[in-house]
Amino acid sequence: MTSIMERTISVKGEGRVRVRPDTVRLNGVVQDVCDTYDEAVDRSVTCISPLRMRLMESGFDSEILRSVSVSVRPHYEYEDDGRRQVLRGFEYIHSMRIEVGCDSDTVNRILGALSGDGCPRFSTEFALADKASAEEDARRSAVADAISKAEQITTVARVGLGSIISIRYGQDGMRPLMMCDRSVNGLADIVPESLEFTDEVLIEWEII
């Protein structure tokens, strides 16, 4: 959009970069309902110990399994056709995560080690271990896009592009991650989608 009085032009540049993921995050949850609060607290902590042991028995460092959050809350059920809440115990929720390289054999071995009773159901998230380079590429692409658009517009309008007056930046780019719920069947047939990084910049020039 141009202003004849102010003789300026403002152009929004958009950058978009696609990168293959190099990291797999296995996000799991163990949860159950106990009769008492003390029992729920105890099991919320101890439920991860047998999982670490299974990982060690399969040749993994047990510390790859990290706790994300632990919570305990009252568990209610409805009676009388939903008209009355009744306390039926206390529910514990232990969220955990394993992060490894994007290697299907390793992931399948981990899921195999954590199969069986008492084991969490995992969701699989593909990501980048270091997003800084991709974010920088998207930012550079946004600036280059703004410059290209401004040069095209001023050339067609038969005016000159002068000095930059202002640069507005700060809108977070969208960084979608491919998600897929997986049981212990593994990831052998999954080809992860490329991750998309986007960014925007608004640059204002003087017109000469």
- Outline the biggest β-sheet: 5 strands, antiparallel
Number of helices: 4
Mean pLDDT: 86
Oligomeric organization of the protein chains: single chain
Indicate the radius of gyration in whole angstroms.
26 Å
Distance between the termini: 15 Å
Gross morphology: elongated
Could you name the ranges where pLDDT drops below 50 across 5 or more consecutive residues? 172-185
Report the β-strand fraction as a percent range. 35-45%
Q: Which structural class best describes the helix and strand composition? A: alpha+beta
Order of helices and strands: EEEHHEEHEHEEE
Count of extended strands: 9
> How much helix, percentage-wise, in residues?
25-40%
* Cross-sheet strand order for the largest sheet: 4-5-3-6-8
Description of the structure:
The protein has 4 helices and 9 strands, in the order βββααββαβαβββ. About 20% of the residues are buried. Helix content is about 25%, strand content about 45%. The two termini are about 15 Å apart. The strands form 2 sheets. A 5-stranded antiparallel beta sheet has the order 4-5-3-6-8. The chain has a 4-stranded antiparallel beta sheet with strand order 1-2-9-7. The chain is of the alpha+beta class and about 210 residues long. The protein has helices at about 35-45, 50-55, 105-115, 130-155; strands at about 1-5, 10-20, 25-35, 65-80, 85-100, 120-125, 160-170, 180, 195-205.
